[in-house]
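Supplementary Note 2. Why include the ligand at all?

Several targets in our set were suspected to adopt different conformations when bound, so apo predictions alone were not considered sufficient. For every target with a known small-molecule partner we therefore ran a joint prediction. The input for zinc ion is given below.
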Amino acid sequence: MMQALQKTTAAFGLELREVPVPHAPANGEVIVEVAAAGICGSDVHIYDWSGGYDFLKSAFPVTIGHEFSGRVLEVGHGVDMLRMGQPVVVIPSVECGVCEACRAGRMDACRDRRGIGMLRDGGFARTVRVPAANCLTLPEGIDLGVAALGEPLSIAMSAVKTAEVAAGDRVLVMGPGTIGQGIALLSSVRGANVVVVGYDDEDRLKTVRALGIEQTFDLRMHDLAEVKALTDINEFDIVIEATGVPATVQTGLDCLRPSGVFVICGIHGNPVSFDAAKLVRNRHQIRGTYRATRATWSEVRDFVVGHEARLAPMVTHRLPLANAIEGFEMARRKIGSKILLMP
Ligand SMILES: [Zn+2]
Ligand SMILES: [Zn+2]
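The joint prediction is reproduced in token form.
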């Protein structure tokens, strides 16, 4: 038996339960011993049960946790690319293998995915069973806590690619959470002039500065007019929204130069309204971005391996699995930045 952090009922809370250790892996699968698993904003929503995750009910009881890294503990038949003890980061989205897109080899377009840590057991447990194809190998000696940032960084990298951030672009990132931090760092590595704003979010803005991005502002203290004056940037070439707060869309569009690109990355619980006439006259482009493709994931793995030390400040807390609820309460109150559970 082992401890696992599970969602068991459609109500507030999560339960640390004793569950059977996963059985011998099937064909093409492996058992991963989890080293580190990050608490994500969506995990906090699942904990709160504040709406939007009804689709999980069919999987109850389910172990959550979709941002994790670890070591291969056991390999099933037909797995030849992974050996025991191999450090890996796990792509938490499993394709169905039978839909039209999957059969045509276009796995990125699969219509029936099952998320690890959503619809099947995830990483808030000592071990987890996953398809071998979802494991990206890491070099020996890497900090597996930093490697657990792979999933949010994959979302951030997709956003930066969708926005087509280039050297010299003036980029406004709205929302200093892990994904916003990743967007800011990746944009800055591409040579952009990056400004990050948050609201009542001092801890996470501090993390942004620790990543080497100096222009950060808490909108509780400064309004956007002040931000423009202080940064000497009157309008941005690109605005990327990673908050999920509907009002940020109009606010962000108002900061954009004519023909500028606005990327929506946040998950919005409510419909968003904006001034379409203004959008038309300014020829503004709104783009959506979401889960990363396999190709982007490979780039993320290489980025994590190449920038381990630079990424390290994003992880502010590492707690044992037994303290999971404490970690969730901290995440809810925006204390620190990425909080990892170390099963
Ligand atoms: Zn996540
Ligand atoms: Zn499919």
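The first strand starts at residue 2 and ends at 7. The first helix runs from residue 41 to 48. Comparable summaries for the other entries are listed in the accompanying table.
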